[in-house]
Amino acid sequence: MKLSKHAGACQLPLFSHRVMLQSFLCLFLQGILIAGTEEQKAKYLPRLASGEHIAAFCLTEPGSGSDAASIQTRATLSEDGKHFLLNGSKVWISNGGLASIFTVFARTEIVDKDGQVKDKITAFIVERDFRGVTHGKPEDKVGIRGSNTCEVHFENTKVPIENVIGEVGGGFKVAMNILNSGRFSMGSASAGMIKKLIELTSEYACTRKQFNKKLSQFGLIQEKFCLMAVKAYVMESMAYLTAGMMDRPGFPDCSVEAAMVKVFSSEGAWACVSEALQILGGLGYMKDYPYERYLRDTRILLIFEGTNEILRMYIALTGMQHAGKILTDKIKYVLIYS
After folding, report:
1. Active-site pick, 39, 127, 305, 309
2. Which pTM was predicted?
3. Residue 199 designated active-site
């Protein structure tokens, strides 16, 4: 048996690092790229690209998880119309204790075309230097323990009007577009991790003997490797296909495809890590080896970026809309002439 206690400890893709970079690249930067002004891009992107600043994405609140539209953090426009005063708290914020710049979503009052005052969500770029920004202690999590996660609080934080991302009242659409990018990236990240798991686990299976046979010679073990290989192939294929769609000119709507990638990849990663640990047997359950860590780390994938239960409903309902429009006339025809 050649498996070292440190085998793969520095080789397997670290989901904690991925979470940090995803909050930085996919979530914060995507908002500016999609809806930011040229001035916002010129001011913030170079400092973020150089690593001078770390960013965080602030959407979830104590009373608002999957129901993102129910957030209560509020931004009130000043009398002179030059800035907003931001008040509220956000939870489960990756990089929350490290970030110097935040994308924050808050409720704002807007006057619609009919002259009625309504509450709508607006997205803001908030710098910690604006003051009134504090954070709680790091959360003690089951997995992704290398990622900083904490509450972030805003108390009368003065945000210049030019730091609104997109339109005032248009923040919900910005948030949904940003999350699509994070969901899509889960395919490539999960596929990379599974490929490394196959490499390390197969080394063990080809050297470990039971009943005078190597583990790799048993059909049930071969079936587990087959499952992992198929899952990795499909994840990677979905990621490449969706990337090609997202790279088309303009901002094509790939929200359903991104949700599909997220659901399949997160559940596939969880299943594959479990199978890899099963091949290792008792060793896989020991903290001396890295595999239990990846079991803990991958569990979060089914929860964040939108729970898989919510995304399944989104995929079904949104996916049926197109077919519904086509079939409506045919259904009417059947009802009339039947």
Report:
1. 305
2. 0.84
3. no
